[in-house]
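Folding Problem: From Residues to Backbone Shape
Fields: amino acid sequence; protein backbone structure tokens
RECORD BEGINS BELOW THIS LINE
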Amino acid sequence: MSSASTFTDNKILKQALLDSFTKLDPRVQFKNPVMFITWLGAVVVTVVTFHRMISGLGFGFEFQLALWLWFTVLFANFSEALAEGRGKAQAESMKKTRSHTMARKIMNGREEGVVSLALRKGDIVVCETGDVIPGDGEIIEGIATVDESAITGESAPVVREAGGDRSAVTGGTRVISDRILIRITTDPGNSFLDRMISLVEGAKRQKTPNEIALGILLVSLTVVFVLAVITLKFFADYSARSAGQDLSEIVNMPVLIALVVCLIPTTIGGLLSAIGISGMDRLIRKNVIAKSGRAVEAAGDIDVLMLDKTGTITLGNRMASEFVPAPGVSAERLAEASQLASLSDETPEGRSIVVLAKQKFSLRAEKLDPHQAHFVPFTAQTRMSGVDIVTENGALRSLRKGAADSLQKHVESQGGIYPAEVKKSVEAIAKQGGTPLVVADGHQVLGVIYLKDIVKGGIRERFAELRRMGIRTVMVTGDNPLTAAAIAAEAGVDDYMAQATPEMKLQRIREEQSKGHLVAMTGDGTNDAPALAQADVGVAMNTGTQAAREAGNMVDLDSNPTKLIEIVETGKQLLMTRGALTTFSISNDIAKYFAIIPAMFAGLYAVKGADGPLSSLNVMGLSSAQSAVLSAVIFNALIIIALVPLALRGVPYRAMGANKILQRNLVIYGLGGVLVPFVGIKLIDVIVVGLGLV
């Protein structure tokens, strides 16, 4: 569901409206001190209104104040309920994938049908084509294709197999081919899906450190303004006695409460929870589950990104990019031999060779009859593959492609010569970060195929954006230093780690953290678990092992390593949104102070019916003290509901440094926060007076 559709989903809106009233419970309000003060103020003004009504006194002004104070609380409740409603809607879709199916449990070497809820950690179950996987687990035997669309939304099946980094399976997914044995890794109620549903619903959401710190600031400001307004009553009474005036109808309990509510940071107080919930919700919409709000927040503070080369920076499959012929051999002959030698090679590299020959020389792969050709598969011992073809005249043509040293031995064993020029080509390709494959026709070396690990399109620009944000990127690869350096230069990363081992990754993260940096990384294997646990933001792939998923504080359901960049952007957007709306809220309070106080005391020390000296500060020209207070209270309530879409959607993200973001926010939300109340309160004042409400 997009953020735009949130506001047109009647089901979510209706539930949020109902929850707004449910949240009026003082036990709920007490958790938010700023809004609790507003709630108390609404209660007191309501009591005063009823007292005046019973006493036969005019109560229209007080009634309107009470009404808008309740609206202020309800609008704040609505923003939080709407954010929670989006999460609950996501949780409902997850619950549909959690099926209590029958499982085929292995007991004493025999299969026995049990309900999935009866499965416990350590139980072994068997799943075959069409079976729903009954719980989270790891494959201990077999290989199968699995439909994970219920979890990831991706319709393409994925391969899961025992003994590798793609052995984890999630309950609720479906096996669509073959047979596997699964060891259950969680007890009922503690599965990955169960925990994710609880987090998405917000049932276990805890305030993050930044939220707690901001909450302390807001409470401090609230205490300051409460004390200021309390003392204002004494100053007003003293001034009134000195001037021989009566301000009891202007400076009374309802007005002072309204003044407190307008001056304390109710805007950010009412939206703070919604901002935090929606930050996690935006990640969920990217198919990333954050195990805590703290992880999302940490993503916004990251300044070092460690990214695996394969699948993140590069496409992950080496692709043929050039044919480099040996002296005296045409490039077309090399391409033709390479294509024939790759006909049975179903690897991405083999298919790319066939495609490149077709693109460059319009060569179409020949269809070889079984009696004509014998395909030689690649083995770890020979490190080469190819085909033996019986020509029309009965001669045997032996085509081979493979590692340079293996082909050299093969050619020389047949009495051929391995050209020095081919050696130079092999070395040059290796230095550029490529993989050379030498091709031979019998005892003659034809040349070299340049296999290149293709850097993803647009990745260099993404790294440039991160650099502008003050984030340093580190590429992690098992390649040799020469290859790593070449790919790092092409991709535009700031640093790289070559021939990296799990121990080296962990050590590098600790070194960066010891220098005061916050580090993020991705991983999917058991050997990545220590580094994922050490990183400030560890993003585990959903396709990875159970150990990796437990170690990380985020899980990417799409298992897309490049998602780490989007996660960082989402975290920064969360912090930007909170900072921007906090700036706007505090600026609002300043403007409301200068709007209300001069209007309240415009008549103080007035002589012969003229305005008092404080009236010169009433720059907005508000009609009266009562209209000023009522207009400010109305504005204070409406601004909360007006900012709900921004709180849920987030401040538009732009890649720039922290200083530029601060300057931009101060101009837009700081200056805007000062100017908007002046315009808004004046407009409401005109409407209120025009309708005769005061």
User: Anything to note?
Assistant: The chain has 23 helices and 21 strands. Residues 288 and 556 are 4 Å apart (CA to CA).
